[in-house]
């Protein structure tokens, strides 16, 4: 029986999952919306992966989780390793692009930059405060302009004179965009201007003070937008590589980390039929007043965290 490795990346907007073999070949993948329910999203994700997975020839022997809900999801799926997004994205990208020097990543609600030297991540920055440089901003502006977000790239590439859109923050950008619409700027020029604004916001915030060197790899959901890719190439003056599976790179990094780790635990697809829920407990045993999250499976406590001292420890 061949061995396989599961990687799950749960973010605020989307949930991604992959299954890789020992050669990092993709055996199954899925990308769905989290919709404010990471537990429900992961159960749905597991169901989608199971339908693609060859159980007769492979078995999952290790699982890695990453993303904003990595600890919660790690508990539910019995992860053998739980890692932050920076580590997972860096490991995934470096594995497939050993010479990469700069990793650009823009997701639904946050963005990050990772600088690499000799195959090792040496610096990074994240932006979780301003939405002007994220996928959520692009989606809202596409809706305002009456087009699908998937169409933005095509419109932007047709523009000959991109409209100047304020890029300092979401509020300024939206106000300026409405003004430019009312002035009569062509739709394709406005959309190209929005793509340029996303890139300018990213470079002025996340990339500020960073020495961005080629080769550059761009990933995350926004990397699928050809208009933003073109705007990055123009701003940086170099080719920007987009991996076909760039939107899954965090999950791929988690799976690779699971393979490299010593932990081994066979994954059970039956979790999609199980009932999980969380409950918040206020400790009150010391001045810290810790808010402890307890995770239950079929009414049985399986994990708890949030305590800052031993008096708040809750054990399964």
CATH topology category name of the largest domain? Nucleotidyltransferase, domain 5
The CATH architecture assignment of the largest domain turns out to be 2-Layer Sandwich
How many structural domains can be distinguished in the coordinates? 3
| Cα radius of gyration in angstroms | 21 Å
Number of strands: 13
Name the overall outline: globular
Low-confidence stretches: none
Explain how this protein is built:
This protein is α/β, with parallel strands linked by helices and 316 residues long. The protein has three domains: 2-89 and 251-272, 2-Layer Sandwich (Nucleotidyltransferase, domain 5); 99-242, ATPase, nucleotide binding domain (Nucleotidyltransferase, domain 5, 2-Layer Sandwich); 276-312, no CATH class. Helices cover 34% and strands 26% of the residues. The protein is built from nine helices and 13 strands. Strands 3-2-1-4-5 form a five-stranded mixed beta sheet. The protein has a five-stranded mixed beta sheet with strand order 8-7-6-9-10, sandwiched between helices. Helix 4 (135-144) packs antiparallel against helix 7 (187-205), helix 6 runs antiparallel to helix 7 (187-205) and helix 7 (187-205) packs across helix 8. The longest helix has 19 residues, at 187-205.
């Amino acid at each position: 029986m061949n061995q396989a490795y599961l990687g799950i990346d749960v973010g605020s907007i989307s949930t991604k999952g992959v299954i890789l073999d020992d050669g990092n070949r993709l055996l199954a993948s899925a990308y769905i919306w989290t919709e404010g329910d990471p537990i429900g999203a992961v159960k749905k994700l597991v169901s989608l992966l199971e339908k693609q997975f060859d159980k007769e020839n492979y078995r999952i022997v290790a699982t890695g989780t990453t993303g904003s809900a990595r600890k919660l999801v790690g508990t539910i799926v019995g992860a053998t390793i739980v890692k932050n997004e920076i580590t997972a994205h860096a490991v995934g990208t470096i594995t497939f692009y050993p010479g990469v020097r700069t990793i650009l990543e823009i997701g639904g609600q946050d963005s990050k930059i990772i600088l690499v030297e000799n195959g090792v991540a040496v610096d990074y920055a994240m932006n979780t405060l301003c939405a002007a440089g994220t996928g959520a901003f692009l989606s809202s502006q596409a809706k305002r302009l009456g087009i699908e977000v998937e169409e933005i790239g095509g419109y932007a590439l047709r523009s000959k004179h991109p409209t100047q859109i304020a890029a300092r923050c979401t509020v300024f950008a939206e106000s300026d965009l409405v003004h430019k619409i009312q002035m009569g700027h062509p739709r394709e020029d406005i959309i190209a201007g929005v793509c340029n604004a996303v890139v300018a916001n990213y470079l002025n915030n996340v990339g500020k003070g960073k020495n961005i060197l080629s080769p550059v790899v761009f990933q995350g959901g926004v990397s699928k937008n050809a208009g933003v890719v073109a705007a990055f190439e123009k701003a940086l003056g170099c080719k920007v590589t987009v991996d076909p599976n760039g939107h899954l790179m965090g999950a791929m990094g988690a799976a690779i980390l699971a393979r490299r780790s010593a932990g081994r635990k066979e994954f059970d697809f039956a979790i999609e039929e199980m009932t999980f829920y969380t409950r918040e407990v206020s400790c009150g045993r010391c001045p810290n007043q810790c808010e402890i999250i307890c995770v239950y499976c079929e009414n049985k406590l399986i994990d708890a965290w949030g305590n800052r001292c031993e008096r708040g420890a809750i054990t399964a």
